[in-house]
Amino acid sequence: MARYLLRRTAFLLGSLLLAATLLFLLLRLLPGDPANSLLSVGATPEQIAAARHQIGSDRPLPEQFGSWLGGLARFDLGTSFVSTLPVGQEIASRLVVTVPLTLLSFLLAVVVAVPVGFLAAYRADRWYGPLLNGVSQLGIAVPVFWIGMLLVTVFALRLRVLPAGGFPRHEWEDPAAALTSLALPVVTIALVMSASLIRYVRSATVDVLGADYLRTARALGSSFVGAMWRHGLRNAAVPVISILGIELATTFLGAVVVESVFALPGLGGMLVKGIAEHDYPVIQGVLVVSTFAVLVIGFAADLVQRLVDPRLRAHLAGGRP
Amino acid sequence: MSGILVSSKIVGAALVLSLALAACGTGSGGTTSTAPPAAATIEIGSLYEPQNLDNTAGGGQGVTEVFNGNVYEGLFKLTDAGKVENLLAESHKVSPDGLTYTFTLRKGVKFHSGKPLTSADVKYSIEKVTAKDSQSARKSGFKPVKSIETPDDATVVVKLASRSISLVYNLSYVWIINSAAKNLTTTEDGTGPYKLGAWKRGSTLSLDRFDGYWGAKPTNKGVVFHYFTDATALNNALLTNAVDIVTSEQSPDALAQFKDNKDYRVSDGHSTTKLLLAFNDRKAPFDKPLVRKAVTSAIDNAKLLESIWAGYGSLIGSMVPPTDPWYEDLTKVNPYDVNLAKKELAEAGYAKGFAFTLDTPNYDPHPTAAAFIKSELAKVGITVTINVITADEWYSKVYKNRDFAATLQEHVNDRDVVWYGDPDFYWGYDNPQVTKWVAEAEQAETTEVQTELLKKVNRQIAEDAASDWLYLYPQIVVASSDLSGYPINGLNSQFYVYGIKKG
């Protein structure tokens, strides 16, 4: 186990370094000069040069890369060209919104998708089996911003029970207000996420329901629930967990659209603004943090899978599969 | 069977969870207007978040909107009606030769940090704008300044190399800042009626009333600017009373829902933002005034304005908006007339038309306008290739390298007709007579002479069709109808909030 952890950590750091390098180079391939976003019509050549010097875009590329990477090693993400604030500080203030948004959406999606997906498989012969299946199909087809706008129209503009957007100025000081403003965005993301999750849970359940070991367990006298609990669930969970990992990562990265529809000050908005303003340290910072989060989520999904499935652990102890 | 029971319980739990979320929403969903009117905090919605808090370091339009006159004050102020009035200057004297200005400062003015205002702060603040590393858009206006002296704490003497009739007006854009203040991109130390409360990047910026203010107290307890990137989200916030007022409505489609609703008031004021089809006047075919006139006459600006702004905004026919003192209606100089356009093209030697590339910034309304121009010019045989570029590419390609045939761009400032007197400006309009008039206007002894000369400039550039001034943007403020005392013109994106009252 220790060797496995060590190997995974080395892999994680290696991937991060590779991602950081690619990010830095790709951004420099974009046309234009970040100094431009600091200026307005009427700027003199002297002012343009001063802006370039101030943000360091007049220094050679290797030097810029070295100083950024050096900062990264010290957990320093640098300073925004535009706001002149430390990037790390702003990311931290945005994560206060994005992390709860992602986790709550994820929880809600799982809570909805697991039973519904199971039901769609287990009761495929009843009328609501195919219905659930069809609804989830529809959910995959509908774009997330449209669901968001629909929910805003119904719950915020018509019924007036929830805010249309925004996040409280005092953030989590008033948890009820913060949760209230996250309610519609969370439901929006959860709806879309659960639509695809339902399909994975359903097909995993279909596989398990037809499995020999389940029939054998029943033949040996286990109740259906008992057999499902001891054997079925674990087997169905293995493919679903790896999908869950991917879904969680996608939600974290894909919150951009939902944050924009609901005017939430999250990480996505920061990235979009950073791109619009050519603010390299901001773009790099957000993407490095996101990459890190995705790698960690993948790592965690892997670990959970190993805990659930003894076959994977055996493989790791040295036995051949 | 029991499997269904278990799962339906879980589904039930999920339902309860979402209902619970919905229920706590009812407490704060749209009840911001219940605070007592006298001490109300005004919630303001805006699309223009500051980039940082320093207007000489790239703070942008957003910081002007929130800070001008509210947090920082100048020696003078430009009122919402376009008049220049004394603010931190109590009075000023001009020497007979027009080269020495003596300003007397108002007494009893304190910065938010508690330090009293002195002439040294004024000198520091002007020099901050004219400094080498300053990114102020107003820097060029202070070229004639030779020296700034401070004979005593209440007197500032500005000496000029040449007359500058706009000096007092230009000073209305110079924030007077405590010379000892630090970290001005994230904090402030001004003399205005409000001090900065808190700025949550990407979300809100609050202003709290400053108790030590020298002038009349604001009519509200404070204001909170809520920043949006999406116009629909902003309108939804207004519809649900999450904000009381929108500083500048940019989504004309959404106006209908406020216009016929007695809970809201829509104000149609004057802006100073002009949409330009700017030709590169250096390069063929646009080096010929006749070609530029033909293009101008071939485009139906009224129809373009109607399709983008649905009845709002106005046609100006030149660079000068109605709030500038030298405004004249010049829409008849190059009227919309396709036959005239064809005749002018033939006369210029382009009877069969020509082709050019239009560099189009990728944000609204430029792409829409470009598509319209393309279809209009096709009717007179001119083929337009639309090249969509980012704001940033625009700076490099068009503004710095002048590598363009024609471009679309919005020009936001008032009194900016003087750029036509600078042959080095990006559009390259070079008429020595106009350059001379602009220089003379700046050195004029009276505003009457200045006005007369700039009117001549304006007429001349219209006759030369130096650019095609497609239209003047509307400035639309939408507010809940229990609000009063807000500015409706928002000149140069200023937005004075101290007079806003609820109830």
Describe the 3D structure.
The complex is a heterodimer of chains A (321) and B (503). Chain A has 321 residues and is mainly α. Helix content of chain A is 76%, strand content 0%. Chain A has helices at residues 2-29, 45-55, 61-73, 87-122, 128-141, 144-158, 175-209, 212-219, 224-261, 267-276, 280-308, 310-317. The mean pLDDT of chain A is 82. Helices cover 29% and strands 22% of the residues of chain B. Chain B is built from 13 helices and 18 strands. Chain B has helices spanning 2-28, 60-67, 119-130, 167-171, 231-239, 256-259, 289-298, 301-309, 338-347, 366-378, 391-400, 432-442, 447-463, and strands at 41-46, 76-78, 84-86, 89-94, 100-105, 145-152, 155-160, 194-200, 204-209, 222-227, 245-246, 264-279, 355-361, 383-389, 406-411, 468-480, 483-484, 501-502. The interface between A and B is large, with 76 and 66 residues.
What does the secondary structure layout of this molecule look like, with pairings?
The complex is a heterodimer of chains A (321) and B (503).
Chain A: H1 2-29, H2 45-55, H3 61-73, H4 87-122, H5 128-141, H6 144-158, H7 175-209, H8 212-219, H9 224-261, H10 267-276, H11 280-308, H12 310-317
Chain B: H1 2-28, E1 41-46, H2 60-67, E2 76-78, E3 84-86, E4 89-94, E5 100-105, H3 119-130, E6 145-152, E7 155-160, H4 167-171, E8 194-200, E9 204-209, E10 222-227, H5 231-239, E11 245-246, H6 256-259, E12 264-279, H7 289-298, H8 301-309, H9 338-347, E13 355-361, H10 366-378, E14 383-389, H11 391-400, E15 406-411, H12 432-442, H13 447-463, E16 468-480, E17 483-484, E18 501-502
Helix pairs in contact in B: 7-9, 12-13
Radius of gyration of chain B from CA coordinates: 26 Å
For the sheet with most strands of chain A, the description reads:
none
Largest sheet of chain B: 10 strands, mixed
Please tell me what the overall shape of chain A is: globular
Strand content of chain B: 15-25%
Oligomer: heterodimer
User: How many β strands of chain A by DSSP?
Assistant: 0
- Helix amount of chain A, in percent? over 70%
Report the portion of residues of chain A in β strands: under 5%
Main sheet: strand order of chain B: 8-9-10-1-11-16-12-15-13-14
How many β-strand stretches of chain B?
18
- Which class do the helix and strand fractions of chain B yield? alpha+beta
Helical stretch tally of chain A = 12
